[in-house]
């Protein structure tokens, strides 16, 4: 579905502090946070890829594959303004250099020049190397200020399913891996409109990122190992669903909102800091190639800067978007190269 009449989005005075669910609760199915797990057809539709998307396990698990012909992807039926969004994902195994799996929120199909985005991106793997995951945030089309952070995963994400979650409120964004926070992005006055503030859809895609994903494009997709299959299950869409054709949101008091985390507990913060010290390999705040001075919201930690110095930062297209990922509603029929 392609939404029009975008002027309806101009009313942002909504009171959206109560996060809600508008999707049907599947009886007996809950996530690790006691949030309802939905069937694929209840919350999502295919975005592109034809037969490269296969629904499994009573409609609650979906496989996305990449071959020489095309990648594949799906997108949520609804738009959301704040909420908790999650999926358990098992990544392709063996040699996956250049293969990108993305689990992210975006409104780029409606706001081409001032879109918002919140990303999880898995950047492919060379045998014997640790898998890498990237998180990123864009607000109001601020693509000239990439806010990427990258980490080496402390497990093999192709061996089993692991849960990846995004909490998005009006004041902060938290990325979780297996219910442990790995990154918090707080909204600051200095960020201005760079903090995501417009309703977004949830996307999942697999695509060929040979030009940049693995060591800056040094290692490319080898299709003799295809098809590459990413498996998704435990799908959670728990948030404020909004209608772009109406002036007000549908955010009323609905059960389960108490199950959404509101912040990071002291014990979880200790775990997050431990993961960041051990596994973070890149932060935009320390990238002197891209920024003469760090973006205003950055808090520079000299010890962290020294630890990250040994990693060579890779500039992803000098701040430009990776167009391979952005298959939006009006481009769903296009095959991916």
From TrEMBL:
Main localisation, per the record? secreted
Keywords assigned by UniProt?
Answer: Apoplast, Cell wall, Cell wall biogenesis/degradation, Disulfide bond, Glycosidase, Hydrolase, Secreted, Signal, Transferase
Q: Where is the composition biased (Basic residues)?
A: 319-331
Q: What is this protein called?
A: Xyloglucan endotransglucosylase/hydrolase
**Which positions carry the signal peptide feature in this UniProt record?**
1-28
Active-site annotation: 117, 121
Q: EC number(s) for this protein?
A: 2.4.1.207
Which InterPro entries does this entry report, sorted A to Z?
A: Beta-glucanase-like, Beta-glucanase/XTH, ConA-like_dom_sf, XET_C, XTH
Q: Which family does it belong to?
A: Belongs to the glycosyl hydrolase 16 family.
Question: What species is this protein from?
Answer: Cannabis sativa (Hemp)
Do you know which PANTHER family this protein is assigned to? XYLOGLUCAN ENDOTRANSGLUCOSYLASE/HYDROLASE PROTEIN 8-RELATED
Entry comment on modification after translation: Contains at least one intrachain disulfide bond essential for its enzymatic activity.
Give the region (Disordered) as residue ranges: 310-337
Annotated Gene Ontology cellular component terms: apoplast
Q: What is the lineage of its organism?
A: Eukaryota, Viridiplantae, Streptophyta, Embryophyta, Tracheophyta
> In its UniProt record, which GO terms are filed under biological process?
cell wall biogenesis; cell wall organization; xyloglucan metabolic process
Q: Which PROSITE patterns does the record associate with it?
A: GH16_2
* Function field: Catalyzes xyloglucan endohydrolysis (XEH) and/or endotransglycosylation (XET). Cleaves and religates xyloglucan polymers, an essential constituent of the primary cell wall, and thereby participates in cell wall construction of growing tissues.
Molecular function (Gene Ontology), one example: hydrolase activity, hydrolyzing O-glycosyl compounds
UniProt key word Hydrolase:
yes
Could you tell me which Gene3D superfamilies the record lists for this protein?
2.60.120.200
Q: Domain GH16, which positions?
A: 30-232
Pfam families membership: Glyco_hydro_16, XET_C
Q: Where in the cell is it found?
A: Secreted, Cell wall; Secreted, Extracellular space, Apoplast
